[in-house]
Structure formats: C-alpha cells, structure tokens
Amino acid sequence: MSNPRRKPHNTFTNHEVALIREHWPTRMPMTDLLALLPRHTENSITGYANKKLGLKRPSVRTIRPAWERVRAMLEQEPMTQVEIASAMGFSRTRACEILKLNRESVHIVAWRWPEAFGRAEALWALVSAPDAPEPMGAKRLRRGALRRANPFLAAAGLVQAPAGRPGRVYKQSMSVNDEEQAA
After folding, report:
1. Model-level pTM?
2. Distance between CA 101 and CA 74 in Å, rounded?
3. Whether residues 118 and 79 fall in one domain
4. Neighbouring C-alpha atoms within 13 Å toward the C-beta of 84
5. What is d(CA 178, CA 67) in angstroms, rounded to the nearest whole number?
6. Residues of the chain with pLDDT > 90: what percent?
C-alpha cells in the first residue's frame, strides 16, 4: 500500500537516460545539463547518474589553473597562506586546500610571527627539503620551563629559588580556645 502523502516518482525516459549517458561523463556545466532535463533536479540527475547508471563525472580538481598560478608565485618567493589567498583573490581556506593537494611539491621553509598576537604562520616555498619545525609560543615556553623546574636544586643551593608571588599561604592560629576543647 502506498503512502498518499509521498510525492509521485518522476522516472527518467529513455531519451533522458541517453542524454545523461552522453553528457554526464563530459565537463558540461550542470546548468546546461539542467536545461536539457527540465523535469529533474540537480540532485535527482546526480543520484541517477552515479547510483543507477554507475557513471563517473570528471572532477573539476583535475584542471589546475589555480595551482599553476600559485606555483609561479612560490617560485619567486616564499609566501604564507594569507598572502597567497590575497594575491590570488580567494579565501585562505582555498589556499590551504591547494597547498594540501600539492603537498609533495611545497614545503614549509620558515615561520613568521604576526605583528599582533597569534600563532606563527608558515612560509611555503617550492623546495625539496623537510618542513621547518613549528616554533613554540613564548607563553608555552615559559610554562614548560616552570613545569620542568626542579625544586630540589633550589634546596641544595645549586640554582636560585624562583621569585615572584607565592602560592596559597594558609595561616592558622595555634592557640586553642575553650569552645574547641569542648568539641
């Protein structure tokens, strides 16, 4: 028994299937394909072509004009992701994606600290060398040094005891009151 609220299924005709078989494996834009198949949505065409017909659509990522332009810029000088994105006119996320896709060609040659607060930014270049290690922040270095301090060296007089604010100081009176003795 069918559900009366369910939308009717819009099946593909033989002519529409032939059009999908002809145009799906090409790089025809989806808008043109939608114009050829006005009865169907983008999702229904994609699902039918991929799942029912088992056709593969060529990836747009195989065309790499953006990578060629980024490569030309990196041949001149090392750049950060932000500099690449602003020079190319796209987002930092896209610059990161391009660098990740071509990770075998680019490497981190150095790190640059921003003028304001923040993490160091990687300088990317076209070199065949291992990545430069990421530097630790100043606060993290201080925390690590404090954590690694040996209190017994100060007690032995080998190093100077750390100066600064003391930790918690508890003051407790040592006199006993009559009320405390009764308890």
Report:
1. 0.45
2. 15
3. yes
4. 29
5. 85
6. 31
Q: Which residues contact 24 (CB under 8 A, 6 or more apart)?
A: 33, 49, 53, 55, 57
- Cα 22 from Cα 20, distance rounded (Å): 5
How far, in Å, CA of 29 to CA of 36, rounded?
Answer: 11
- Determine which of 86-95, 111-120, 145-154 has the lowest per-residue pLDDT on average: 145-154
> Is there a contact between 61 and 101 (Cβ–Cβ < 8 Å)?
yes
Structure tokens at 88: 């190319």
What is the predicted pLDDT for the residue at 17?
A: 93
Whether the per-residue pLDDT at 60 is higher than 60: the answer is no
Report the C-alpha gap between 28 and 12 in whole angstroms: 19
What pLDDT does 163 receive?
A: 72
Q: Look-up: residue for tokens 């999908």?
A: 20
Place of tokens 């790089």: 27
Q: Distance between CA atoms of 9 and 99, rounded to whole angstroms?
A: 44
Residue 157: helix, strand or coil by DSSP?
coil
Tell which of 125, 150, 169 closes a domain: 125
pLDDT value, residue 14 = 93
Last residue in a domain, options 5, 37, 58: 58
Instruction: Please provide the size of the chain in residues.
Output: 183
